[in-house]
Amino acid sequence: MEYIKEEGTTLIIFGILIISLLLTDLLVFNKTAHKVKIKEAMIWSIIWISIGLLFGLYIYFSLGGEKATQYYTAFLIEKALSVDNLFVFIMVFRFFKVPDAYQHKVLFYGIIGAVLMRAIFIFFGVTLIGISYLPAFTFAGIEIKINVVMTLFGVFLIYAGWKSWHQEDEESEDFSKSLGTQFIHKLFRVYPKFNGEKFFIRIDGKSFATQLLVVVAVVEFTDLLFAVDSIPAIFAVSNDPVILYTSNIFAILGLRALYFLLASAFDMFAYLKYGLAFILVFIGAKMVLSSIYHIPSTLSLGIVGGVLIICMVFSIKKYKQQRSLSKNNIR
Questions:
Q1: What letter would DSSP give residue 26?
Q2: Hey, which of 103, 148, 275, 284 would disulfide with 132, CB 3.0 to 4.6 Å?
Q3: Is 13 exposed, middle or buried (0-12, 13-18, 19+ CB in 10 A)?
Q4: Of the candidates 263, 276, 297, which has an alpha carbon nearest to the alpha carbon of residue 229?
Q5: What sign for the dihedral angle of Cα 147, 152, 156, 159?
Q6: In this structure, how many other beta carbons lie within 10 angstroms of the beta carbon of residue 248?
Q7: What sign does the dihedral 76-106-186-192 (CA atoms) show?
Q8: CB of 212 within 8 A of CB of 197?
Q9: How far apart are CA 150 and CA 290, in angstroms?
Q10: Paired strand residues for 224
Q11: Cβ contacts of 161 within 8 Å, gap of 6 or more
Q12: Of 229, 227, 269, nearest to 249 (Cα)?
């Protein structure tokens, strides 16, 4: 009963903090549209990541060390997998030629949609997992209790990781045919240009959706598709919806600032997709094997963090080598 009370307090504090941060972001620091420069993006990335890490400390002191480890593991997994999402956002903005000044607004509404959608996914998913255990049985002296949903999620993540490893670049993807674009075109008449920060304009007495609303819809549907990968992955870390939801939201809240950093350093992440693919396969295997053996959260945190560090080191090394070769060729 005491633990439930602590989780309730955690959710209240979390809700107040998130609403305050989002309102401050929208009404104070980004009240007017502007191009986000690298320095500003770096400062806000540090701020958002720091807030997420500090909330993990609050979890440690209020809910215990094991819950804090689960929080940080889920936070790191979601943060890592979301980077792949950001690369697609870069492609979306390039495809639609979104002016720099409006990109932050698109990402802001994308985050709002993600906060709502992931609440549904996580709390529904935890409930579904809780009712999908098969009766326990013994095999070779080992007690096995299979969870149907966890096993299916695990197999799906292994497949998703394999597919991601072999996936070609998405430079040529036609986002004019995406679900988000089709959705807006079916609901509204669409004006095929941007009109400042407006989502709707009136022409000859008729209402039209602008291209900016189309881009927001594409970003929302893209995040929905990526959530199909990332949400099952964190179910391998914990079955506590409070831990999963808070870590997930803190991980994605800083994505807007991180986007502007990645957009300016797009070529520095050559090996990242392989690391993310490995993480998906590892998490999938953990879910499949969970009925036989539980991999500790600390070990999962170490493996995920280690893989990301290795990928970043080799990516930066390759980037520097390419720049060095390019300079030598110019000379």
A1: I
A2: 148
A3: middle
A4: 276
A5: positive
A6: 26
A7: negative
A8: yes
A9: 8
A10: none
A11: 276, 277, 278, 279, 280, 281, 282, 284
A12: 227
**pLDDT bucket at 188, cuts 50 / 70 / 90:** very high
How far is it, in rounded angstroms, from Cα 65 to Cα 60? 5
Between CA 231 and CA 245 the distance in angstroms is 10
CB 216 within 8 A of CB 106: yes
For residue 214, give both structure tokens: 């189309």
Q: Taking a C-beta distance cutoff of 8 angstroms, is the pair 291, 129 a contact? A: no
Rounded Cα distance between 299 and 5, Å, is 29
Strand partners, 133: 147
Facing residues of 139 across strands?
Answer: 142
Distance between CA atoms of residues 275 and 281, nearest Å? 10
CA distances from 163 to 78, 126, 160, 166, 223 (A): 19, 26, 5, 5, 18
Helix/strand/coil for 143: strand
pLDDT digits (tens, 9 = 90+) for 190-214: 998 898 888 999 988 889 999 999 9
CA gap 212, 214 in Å, rounded: 5
Residue 329 clears pLDDT 70, i.e. is over it: no
SS3 214: helix
Q: Which residues contact 59 (CB under 8 A, 6 or more apart)?
A: 10, 67, 68, 71, 243, 246
Q: Give the pLDDT score at 135.
A: 86
**DSSP classification of residue 135:** P
Please report how many Cα atoms fall inside a 13 Å half-sphere around the Cα of residue 290, on the Cβ side: 27
Beta bridge partners of 203: 206
